[in-house]
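Intended use. Records like the one below are meant for learning the mapping from a protein sequence to its folded structure. Do not use them to infer anything beyond what is encoded.
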Amino acid sequence: MVYKKLVCLLGISTFLLMGCSEMNGASKLTTSSSMEEVKIRTNTNPAVYQTTQDQANAIYEFPKLYTSAVEAQQQNNELGMYTIPGLLSTETLETDQSDTLVNCAEMTPQGVTVAGDYLLISSYCHDHEHNSVVYVINKETHEYIKTIILQGYPHVGGITYDPIAENIWVCARYDQKAEIVAFPMASLEKYDLNTNIQPIEYTQRVELPQLKRASVITYANENIYIGYFDDLKEGVLETYPIDEKGNLSGDLSNEQKIHTTIDTDESEVSGTIVRELQGITFYEDKFLVTQSYGAFENSKLLIFNYEKEKEEFLDHDVDRMVELPAHAEQITAAGNQLYTIFESAAQPYRDIEKVWVDRVLSLDLKKLI
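Structure written out for the chain above:
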């Protein structure tokens, strides 16, 4: 174990000495005031660990995670991992009206979903100075394809896909109000920053006045599930049906609450809740959520027995709990894999963590559950 940690530290040191020279996917050249050409690019090399094995070594001390994300993935491409692009530099805009691409070094990944042949990652500028984006990755080859620029600076806490209507839905915010926005798969595939520098157009914007913020989102059974969670009140999970044309009216059909006392001070149990839930997804008869506590604190994956009629999820509904590294964000179940993303390798957290995850991890759900 000491050897593995030494390998990880040597790998990180080597990377820091090399710098960020491996930039791919250039879209445009712009000229600085010194008349030098500056390439605006989204990097596709790992932000921290040079190799997949380095990343695997880094999560070795999380046994359930290591078993399902490394040992169970030996036959899969790159151990089922996807390098998160754009953590060092992302091509984006400063405003919706701008026609010049700029580099953002503060992009912080939040959401991940599978959409047809693609793996999609949503990310926002930590300093709120650049437009949020979606990275498009080939699901089979794991290769970065392109960056989609979104409108404005929303936190984009989650992203999901409706495979029937072929719409991508993203958590957003407009005029200090919670909303979710959608654009079709056809628009994603046609989007090209080389020919038209502007944010992607939305075909639906749905305001959610009953939510303070749309923090998490997932699609299942012709419904969009949206939640808002914080450390001041119980979590709320809302269900919105989608019609046969893929339209969401914003009419709430069901609301459930998540209120447990796991990992809380027992002296204050009466007033405590699950804090900082970051991602939600469904798998068979299970409801899975990620729980994050911030820097230096392990995240958790909570697996509940799900019942549609249940009004509130409590301690005894948790079927299993799995320790994860800090800064776990969205999870998405697709097939028998649980795609899990972390924000720990983003620039704002890169210098303050002890374990980083600069790749999307695929967890074998059969092994996990």
